[in-house]
Amino acid sequence: MPNLTMEQAMNEALREEMRRDPSVYVVGLGLYPSTGAGATSGLVEEFGELRVRSAPMSETVIAGSCVGAALVGMRPVAELHLADFAFCALDEILSKAGKWRYTHGANDGMTLPIVFLEGIGGYVSAASEHSQSPLGLYWHSPGLKIAVPTTPHDAKGLLKTAVRDDNPVLFFTHKLLTDEEGPVPDDEYLVPFGVAEIRREGDDVTVVATSYMVNLTLQAAEDLASRGVSVEVVDPRTLEPLDIEAIVESVHKTGRLVIVDEDTERCGVGAEIGAQVMELAFEALRAPVGRVANPNLPVPYSPPLEKAVLPSVATIEAAILATL
Amino acid sequence: MDGGRSVEPTFVEKRELYTLMVRSRAFEETAAVFAADGQIPGSWLSGIGQEGTLGVIGQLRVDDYLTYTHRGAYCFIGRGSDPKRLLAELCGKRTGYCKGKGGRHIADLEHGVLGKSGTVGGHAPIAVGAATAIQNRGGDQVVVSLFGEGTSNRGTTHSSMNAAAVWGLPVVWVCENNGYMGNVPASVYTAVPDIADMAGGYGMSGDVVDGNDVLAVHEASQRAISRARAGQGPSLLELKTYRLRPFGEGGADLRDPQEIAAWQERDPIDRFRAHLLDAEVLSDAEARSIGEETDREMQAARVFAEESPFPAPAEAFVDLYA
């Protein structure tokens, strides 16, 4: 099995899906001339400028045009670069892509097969408007599916599933993961939505994490193992749909739950998963649910400040130990 | 740029266009009664007085696409939508186009009506997307995208016009300039009196047309539509018109009554009927017959909407995902 970076794996996914289905196309900023890097690299050479559309500087047009194209049978993929920039198109993503089918009563079998590619994450001294991970904001809004891959394998398989889904899918990739390598099968495969992956098995505490938070959590779990604490790491891979059954099953085994999320804590992923577990498995919990997240601050620029705000191996370990 | 093709509507086409205008007006009057007596539980924004826009919509092909504004029934009537299902939707009934979930937000994909944006101007990038699909497939359909002069303020409008021009997309942007945003006159919020002037900023042609002269609208839009079909890119048409009802049915109208009365004299349906009678395209008896047939159609729509059931509460929980 060859090793690919997450971006290379996503590039393969897009290339395969565009070859398979002529209604699939990509639209976004700076798609040609091709820079030789990124998930869309080299696509224009194979598929041409109509199917790899370099767009004007308008997230509104990029995202909103996907809605119009999807309504008449296309399967667009929007390259929005950063989730921060996609805020310029929140009306198009939240209220159009997410709600158009429902509002119009699924008129005439209406579907909205759109993938919105958005980069997330801090730890790169990019300050408040290039470092956000607004998973909670999107998860709050009805009608959107949300994929958050951690490995190149999952990025490719989830992206192919996303392109084939008849609903709008937000596809979040972390800046620090795009160049990370991992094994990717040669043969075609899909990763289904709503199926969590147990990244590490353990008995004492369940930690739910996505994306780069999985990597930090695995480091924390390794450290704690040497101190006799056995941590189970559950990566949901998609937030919508959420494999709550896998999380609840793990909590029944461990009796303790911590959720790690790079997003701001308030109304966030940790709040939602924690509430669901309390509703479904309160009797299994032997300690209050713990959360590790950004303490509701803009992400600052200077490395020591950024480190103080975003989750770290140390803060994850402390949260795990607090449940014991 | 090619001047575009323009052909006088035939005898039959003129009669069909007149019939669409009469049916649209009759639907509006029915909706106004339903809004007044509460059978339409939400708001209804009447398009009475702006039926000249049918000069554009009425000449579209069945496979063309339309995005529309908050105002008026002519967008649906002109595309061939069924007044029964339109009125049922406004009443929140399950037999409506959106099974009661949309109300004024109506899609009729079978007739190329792509749906309604709750934010004004939200439909502009959607029009760009539908035109992108046409271009990628190598088709010769067009997208007509209606908007008001107030919506010309929005960034969505400008960035969508730019994208359509850059990509050479088959979009006909149609500004229905009725002079007011709510009760606020356009001079308060728009820097230029003619929205068509904005076309120059995006390298496309922009024409100002008397929106209450349906034949003038037909002629100008035919040129724009034929350019779009020929792959010559987008155009902007500005229809100068006026709504003859308040902003929303039942709402206050703060406009000058003399101004309203003056525009009443320029009612697009009255003007077109006078032309057709004068040109002997239509007789008095035929005009009456069209009116009576329309009355029967709207009576049937009323009965259908009234007798249709509301959706069961459980239906609120379906249709979110495909």
Chart the SSEs and their pairings.
The complex is a heterodimer of chains A (324) and B (322).
Chain A: E1 3-5, H1 6-20, E2 24-28, H2 43-51, E3 52-54, H3 59-71, E4 75-82, H4 83-86, H5 90-97, H6 100-103, E5 115-120, H7 135-139, E6 145-147, H8 152-164, E7 169-174, E8 181-183, E9 197-200, E10 205-209, H9 212-225, E11 231-235, E12 238-240, H10 244-254, E13 257-264, H11 269-281, E14 290-294, H12 303-309, H13 313-322
Parallel strand pairs in A: 2-3, 2-4, 4-5, 5-7, 6-7, 10-11, 10-13, 13-14
Antiparallel strand pairs in A: 1-8, 6-12, 9-11
Helix pairs in contact in A: 1-8, 3-5, 9-13, 10-11
Chain B: H1 11-36, H2 54-57, E1 65-67, H3 74-77, H4 83-90, H5 123-137, E2 143-148, H6 155-166, E3 171-177, E4 180-181, E5 184-185, E6 206-210, H7 214-229, E7 235-240, H8 257-264, H9 268-278, H10 284-307
Parallel strand pairs in B: 1-2, 2-3, 3-7, 6-7
Antiparallel strand pairs in B: 4-5
What is the compact description of this entry?
Chain A is of the alpha/beta class and 324 residues long. Chain A contains 13 helices and 14 strands. Chain B is α/β, with parallel strands linked by helices.
Structural shape of chain B: globular
Rg calculated over all Cα atoms of chain A: 19 Å
How does the major sheet of chain A shape up? 7 strands, mixed
- Given helix and strand content, the structural type of chain A is alpha/beta
CATH class of chain B: Alpha Beta
Number of domains of chain A: 2
Q: Give start-end ranges of low-pLDDT stretches of chain B.
A: none
Global morphology of chain A: globular
The CATH topology assignment of chain B is Rossmann fold
Q: Which range best describes the helical content of chain B: under 10%, 10-25%, 25-40%, 40-55%, 55-70% or over 70%?
A: 25-40%
Largest sheet: spatial strand order of chain B? 1-2-3-7-6
First-last Cα distance of chain A: 40 Å
Please report the total strand number of chain B as a whole number. 7
Strand content of chain B: 5-15%
Series of secondary-structure elements of chain B, N-terminal to C-terminal: HHEHHHEHEEEEHEHHH
Instruction: Work out the helicity level of chain A.
Output: 25-40%
Low-confidence stretches of chain A: none
| Strand composition percent of chain A | 15-25%
Biggest interface and its residues per chain? A-B, 44 and 46 residues
At the first level of CATH, the class of the largest domain in chain A is Alpha Beta
Oligomer: heterodimer
